[in-house]
Backbone:
């Protein structure tokens, strides 16, 4: 479920299944964007392959994904801490957005 | 000449959200503050919007720390929007190219709100009022009336599109008045507030003419009349007087101290079908909620209810009840209550089929969502949960084990949750006859189904009317045994079927030893009076 791989040197990508019962609702969306903002990297997500990538630091955009439970969230990041960012975000989603997270 | 016709045109029908009457000045309290502001250079406008966003963020942070819980989570979403570059950058760009700050902000938020309003999911639709709240908070600051509710004269009929609870609380209701919403819902938070403060309220009026000076709000009949003529006012006052008198008579009975019988207090609880039932004017006189049915949650357009939708409903009821106990029954689908995507189809005899707890145990995917919502709500009030249609102790233990697992999962995720007191419905004769085998914190006798199963009479078959009799000695015997076992074991027993509201059945129930009955809110007064009459007759 959790995999990160280097694509073309710069882009770090990962994907993770959204296990949250409610899908990407307000609480998870706020947590995800808050965590994303802790990184300098540009971070993008999408809820299904082929969709446009959206800014993972924008709660309005993340909510607008309307990602349902069990959708696969793809994460892509570029920048100095991209690898750490993708790892932290996939962990957050895989762990179902625990309170008091990183 | 045709003044009468004009009056008739200015009467609007809506749905009652809080019963009562009000006559006073008519005030439009539009969600978006409508005052125009004079705007400056793009540089001034940038400074204005940045300052307004800062003020909004500080206000919301203060509100969040004061309210906590679910409200704080919703407010956190608003704060996140205030720092969302993807949302703000286009607004800043528009302002820099000459759009006034308030217009740019409004337009961007409207677009978001539209998106949520058109969402298929009830949860996302409900978020649109959070966004409207945020839009208005920033607009109020931009238009220079920080934190000040537009002047609402005392006793006014306030008319708005919709209203978030924070706005309602900003208005001074000490001189009465009423609330008329063009949209809104009887289940909203603001409706609960209006009921708890006795402010009459109508929702879903659709559209209302602008510019009226006075209004009559009849929130018993669900009608709003603007700029009424003398004949309309006379008719309104007659209806108000009749309502007052009937309320006074009911209150006189309901306000009496608890019904006593042979020196013992009889607790009178209410049965509710949905959250809105708490709007019944007599509900407040109940000693608690003896049965909250949850099947209404299964009837939505959006499919089976999410954990959040359920949690919000349970929380609303617990908030209403305060210290009083609230017993929520888990889904009792099946039988005569089929639910697409949940109940079994094609059963030859659905009343004897996979229904109630039986169905929940074979559909843990649906059941666990409800148990999670209940476990979260249990933290907030005096919650008890009961399983319907129980036949054997093994079923109860299977349900309890799912419940306990849901609680530990929530706690492991850092979400506050606890296992509430767990009881069972006594409606299957096998359970009534082996009651000492069951581990339960309380028993609630479902006399409608118990009668149907003991007398072998389909309760939906009118031709069996006389045979399907709750006073059949076999039914009464099972009730008596259940109560006696409860007394010996120190376990509370109540009864929540229709017979509890039948004055001619009440003596038999009291003689069986029952001291707690649960009835529909509209029957409370009559039941209380029946017990009081029996009590005074019996003790002399």
Residues:
């Amino acid at each position: 479920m959790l995999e990160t791989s280097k694509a073309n040197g710069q882009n770090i990508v990962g994907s993770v299944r959204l296990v949250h019962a409610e899908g990407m609702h307000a609480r998870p969306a706020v947590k995800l964007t808050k965590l994303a903002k802790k990184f300098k990297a540009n971070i993008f997500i999408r809820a299904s392959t082929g969709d446009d990538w959206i800014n993972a630091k924008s709660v309005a955009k993340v909510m607008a994904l309307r990602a349902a439970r069990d959708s696969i969230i793809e994460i892509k990041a570029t920048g100095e801490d991209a690898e750490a960012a993708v790892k932290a975000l996939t962990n957050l989603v895989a762990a179902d957005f625990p309170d008091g997270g990183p | 000449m045709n003044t009468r016709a004009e009056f008739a045109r200015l009467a609007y029908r809506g749905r009652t959200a809080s019963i009562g009457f009000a006559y006073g000045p008519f005030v439009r309290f539009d969600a978006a503050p409508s005052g125009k502001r004079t705007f400056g250079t793009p540089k001034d406008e940038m400074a204005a919007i940045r300052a307004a966003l800062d003020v909004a963020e500080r206000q919301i942070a203060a509100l969040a720390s004061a309210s906590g819980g679910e409200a704080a989570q919703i407010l956190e979403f608003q704060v996140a929007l205030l720092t969302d570059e993807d949302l703000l950058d286009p607004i800043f760009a528009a302002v820099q190219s000459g759009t006034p700050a308030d217009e740019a902000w409004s337009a961007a938020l409207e677009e978001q709100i539209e998106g949520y309003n058109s969402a298929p999911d009830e949860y996302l639709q409900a978020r649109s009022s959070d966004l409207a709240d945020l839009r208005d908070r920033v607009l109020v600051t931009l238009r220079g009336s920080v934190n000040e509710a537009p002047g609402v004269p005392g006793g006014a009929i306030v008319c708005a599109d919709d209203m978030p609870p924070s706005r309602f609380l900003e208005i001074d209701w000490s001189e009465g008045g009423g609330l008329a919403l063009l949209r809104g819902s009887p289940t909203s938070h603001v409706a609960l507030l209006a009921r708890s403060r006795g402010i009459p309220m109508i929702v879903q009026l659709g559209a209302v003419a602008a510019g009226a000076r006075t209004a009559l709000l009849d929130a018993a009949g669900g009608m709003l009349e603007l700029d009424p003529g003398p004949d309309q006012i006379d008719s309104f006052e007659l209806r108000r007087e009749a309502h007052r008198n009937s309320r006074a008579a009911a209150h006189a009975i309901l306000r009496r101290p608890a019904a006593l019988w042979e020196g013992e207090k009889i607790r009178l609880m209410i049965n509710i079908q949905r959250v809105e039932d708490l709007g019944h004017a007599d509900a407040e006189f109940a000693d608690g909620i003896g049965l909250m049915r949850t099947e209404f949650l299964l009837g939505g357009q959006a499919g089976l209810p999410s954990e959040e939708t359920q949690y919000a409903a349970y929380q609303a009821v617990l908030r209403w009840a305060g210290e009083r106990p609230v017993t929520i029954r888990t889904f009792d689908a099946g039988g005569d209550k089929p639910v697409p995507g949940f109940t079994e189809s094609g059963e030859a005899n659905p009343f004897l089929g996979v229904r109630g707890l039986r169905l929940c145990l074979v559909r843990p995917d649906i059941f666990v969502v409800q148990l999670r919502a209940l476990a979260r709500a249990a933290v907030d009030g005096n919650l008890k949960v009961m399983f319907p249609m129980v036949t054997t102790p093994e079923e109860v233990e299977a349900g309890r084990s799912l419940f306990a697992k849901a609680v530990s999962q929530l706690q492991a995720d850092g979400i506050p949750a606890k296992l509430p007191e767990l009881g069972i419905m006594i409606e299957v004769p096998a359970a009534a006859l082996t009651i000492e085998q069951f581990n339960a914190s309380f028993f609630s006798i479902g006399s409608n189904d118990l009668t149907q199963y003991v007398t072998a009479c389909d309760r939906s078959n009118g031709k069996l009317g006389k045979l399907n009799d709750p006073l059949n000695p076999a039914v009464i015997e099972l009730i008596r045994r259940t109560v006696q076992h409860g007394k010996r074991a120190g376990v509370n027993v109540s009864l929540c079927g229709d017979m509890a509201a039948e004055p001619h059945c009440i003596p038999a129930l009291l003689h069986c030893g029952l001291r707690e009955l649960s009835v529909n809110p509209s029957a409370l007064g009559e039941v209380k009076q029946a017990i009081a009459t029996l009590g005074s007759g019996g003790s002399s």
In short: Chain B touches chain A through 25 residues (CB under 8 Å).
